[in-house]
Write a structure and sequence with these properties.
Elements: H1 2-15, E1 25-43, E2 46-49, E3 58-69, E4 77-93, E5 104-125, E6 128-147, E7 154-174, E8 179-190, E9 193-206, E10 209-224, E11 227-243
């Protein structure tokens, strides 16, 4: 963690004098993401596959992003993103068991909430756009598994953390058309834990309206005491936004 903070922080210090923002900009968008689940959750050493055991395969959700850019030298721009994922399924726990549930039909609920605060600099700002920054991600994950026969037999797995992540965004504009393609992502890896959240997209902008469609992949491999979340979500998304 310490090495990551030093590396990213050093990059931001080097990037600050190169920042090119010369106007005030505000924008927001709502994003619809159709994601597929895969991976496993571990509770006190026992693991369950959320796709094969719990029958959780896909989820559709709405996410929100807003940003504020300014021409003040050396001060970073700010971007906020909120992602909420909720999925339910009915499956079966086998003889290997999960927590205290063994050989049982189960109902399950998985909730994952993420709030990002990103501070970044516009290193390039013309037909080629490049942003570099640091994200503080607050995420809360909870899996509840209920025995269908014995309703008092309930397993609860929780993961709660604030994680610093590197942020990188690049966009290439086709001049005079409003059309662009780009990618952005957050990423971190330390002490056996790793997270990444990347999307690629095509965009069309006319006046203040911004339309975007692309593909997003998010992977979380994080351990919190005896509980561990090792899941991946990926799928297409579409968004509509406004810029001022």
């Amino acid at each position: 963690m310490r090495k990551l903070m030093i590396a990213v922080g050093g990059s931001l210090v080097l990037a600050a004098p190169l920042a090119n923002a010369d106007i005030l900009g505000v924008g927001a968008n709502v994003n619809y993401w159709d994601s597929d689940f895969s991976g496993e959750v571990v509770n006190k050493g026992s693991a369950v596959d959320i796709e094969n055991d719990l029958n959780m395969g896909s989820d559709s959700n709405a996410n929100f992003t807003a940003y504020f850019e300014h021409p003040v030298p050396l001060l970073p721009n700010v971007r906020v993103n909120y992602t909420s994922i909720s999925e339910s399924g009915s499956g079966k726990i086998g003889p290997e068991g999960f927590d205290d549930i063994i050989n049982a039909d189960v109902n399950s609920d998985l909730d994952l909430d993420q709030l990002d605060a990103t501070f970044y600099y516009e290193v390039l700002d013309n037909w080629v756009n490049l942003d570099l920054g640091l994200t503080a991600r607050k995420f809360d994950g909870e899996l509840i598994v209920r025995d269908q026969t014995n309703t008092a037999n309930v397993s609860k797995t929780t993961v709660d953390a604030v994680v610093p992540m590197g942020y990188l965004a690049a966009r290439f504009d086709l001049p005079f058309t409003g059309v662009s393609v780009g990618a952005d992502g957050n990423f971190v890896s330390y002490s056996g834990d790793s997270l990444h959240d990347v999307n690629v997209y095509g965009q069309f902008e006319i006046a203040m309206l911004q339309l975007r469609a692309g593909y997003r992949e998010m992977a979380i491999d994080y351990e919190d005491d005896d509980d561990k979340l090792d899941v991946e979500l990926s799928g297409p998304f579409a968004s509509v936004g406004f810029t001022f």
